[in-house]
Design brief:
With about 210 residues, the chain is of the alpha+beta class. The chain is about 25% helix and about 50% strand. It has three helices and ten strands. Strands 3, 4, 5, 6, 8, 9 and 10 form a seven-stranded antiparallel sheet that branches. A hairpin with a 4-residue loop joins strand 1 and strand 2. The chain starts with 16 loop residues before the first helix and ends with a strand. Its main location: membrane. It holds the Pfam family LEA_2. It is a single-pass membrane protein.
Length: about 210
C-alpha cells in the first residue's frame, strides 16, 4: 500500500489594498503638481503678454503730415485745377500698419468738387512713408457755387480736403487693432500767382 502524497498547490498572494491606495495617491499628487505647474506657466505667459501689449506693443497714433502743396496745372477758362500734395505717413508703432483703399474728398464752400482714390499699402514699423497725392478740382463743380465770382474777384479760392485712412495693426501676431486716421486740410489758392501759399491741416485718430 503506497503512501498517500498530499499535493500542495501553490498559493497566490492577494493584492495589498494599502499598497494600491498609496500608488493611487502618488499618481494623484503628481497630476496635481503638473496641473499647478502648467497653471503657473500660463499665468506668467499671460502677464508677459499683457505687459508687452500695454508698453512695447501699445497702439500709438499714426501721424500724417502735409509737407507741401503745389499747383501742377490750372486752366483759367475752365477753372480746372490739378494739385500735387507731398504727404508723409509716420508709423510710431512697433508693428507695421496695413491700410486699405483711401479716399480724399475735395470741397469748396461745403460742396464736393472732387474725389481722389488712393491704393492700399503698408507703413513699416517705426518708419515714415512718403507719398504724392494728386488732387483734381473740377471747374464745372466750382461754377455751381454762387460765391465763385466773389472769391475770384478777391483773387483767391478757399478749398478744403478730407482724407480718411483706415487700417489695422496686428500685435503679437494675433491681436488685431483697427485704426482710422482722418486728415482735414484747408488751402488758399492764389489766382494771380497760380500757387497755394498757405495751407493748414488738423488730424484726428480713432483707435
Amino acid at each position: 500500500m503506497g503512501e498517500n502524497k498530499e499535493q500542495i498547490s501553490p498559493t497566490h498572494d492577494s493584492e495589498n489594498p494599502s499598497s494600491s491606495n498609496k500608488s493611487h495617491d502618488i499618481i494623484r499628487r503628481r497630476c496635481r503638481r503638473r496641473i499647478l505647474y502648467c497653471g503657473c506657466v500660463a499665468a506668467i505667459v499671460g502677464v508677459v503678454i499683457l505687459v508687452l501689449a500695454l508698453t512695447v506693443f501699445k497702439v500709438r497714433e499714426p501721424i500724417i503730415t502735409m509737407n507741401s502743396v503745389n499747383v501742377q496745372r490750372f486752366h483759367p477758362n475752365k477753372l480746372n485745377l490739378t494739385v500735387i500734395a507731398d504727404v508723409s505717413f509716420k508709423n510710431p508703432n512697433a508693428v507695421s500698419f496695413r491700410y486699405g483703399n483711401t479716399t480724399t474728398t475735395i470741397s469748396y464752400r461745403g460742396s464736393t468738387i472732387g474725389e481722389v482714390p488712393g491704393p492700399p499699402g503698408v507703413a513699416p514699423a517705426h518708419r515714415t512713408k512718403r507719398m504724392n497725392l494728386t488732387m483734381d478740382v473740377l471747374g464745372d463743380k466750382l461754377l455751381e457755387s454762387p460765391n465763385l465770382l466773389t472769391d475770384v474777384g478777391a483773387g483767391s479760392l478757399g478749398v478744403g480736403s478730407l482724407t480718411i485712412i483706415g487700417g489695422r495693426v496686428k500685435i503679437l501676431g494675433f491681436i488685431k487693432h483697427h485704426v482710422d486716421v482722418i486728415l482735414n486740410c484747408s488751402y488758399t489758392f492764389n489766382i494771380s500767382t497760380q500757387s497755394i501759399p498757405d495751407h493748414s491741416c488738423h488730424q484726428h485718430v480713432k483707435l
